[in-house]
């Protein structure tokens, strides 16, 4: 029963992330892989392009990746489920942090931080979803 509780909380967190349209971007890793593609051999370029495509799909899924990972953890391997949930949370969280930093750098002041956070997390649903998913993922055990 304890295990089901954390799977259900993970699904709720992912649903809140989907509700608020919290999605991730490949960002720095994508830029790094793109730079490496221009330097390495054609065989390694193909592998890097596949890795970049997989990361892009997982990052774009955001809350959906959290829900899929919760189902994987509920029906089979906790490790694989936790990995998928972690990728969904991580890419979304990094994307949100980058959005906040670029908003501040773009001319918004620290006094506007409250409005930036509300806009970023769409009325705090995204923030609640990320926090719930992080807590649930930490408590999913093998």
Which key terms come to mind for this protein?
142 residues; mainly alpha; 7 helices; flat
Give structural notes.
The protein has 142 residues and is mostly helical. Helices cover 80% and strands 0% of the residues. It is built from seven helices and no strands. It is flat, with a radius of gyration of 17 Å. 32% of the residues are buried.
Secondary-structure blueprint:
Elements: H1 2-19, H2 27-37, H3 42-61, H4 63-75, H5 78-105, H6 113-120, H7 125-139
Helix pairs in contact: 1-4, 1-7, 2-3, 3-5, 4-5, 5-6, 5-7
Oligomer: single chain
Estimated share of beta-strand residues? under 5%
Q: What is the helix tally? A: 7
- Helix content percent band: over 70%
What coarse outline follows from CA principal-axis ratios? flat
Report the strand count: 0
Poorly predicted spans: none
> What's the average pLDDT?
76
What is the element string, with H for helices and E for strands? HHHHHHH
How large is the radius of gyration?
Answer: 17 Å
Q: Which structural class do the helices and strands define?
A: mainly alpha
Distance between the termini: 14 Å
Q: Any idea how many domains?
A: 2
Largest sheet: none
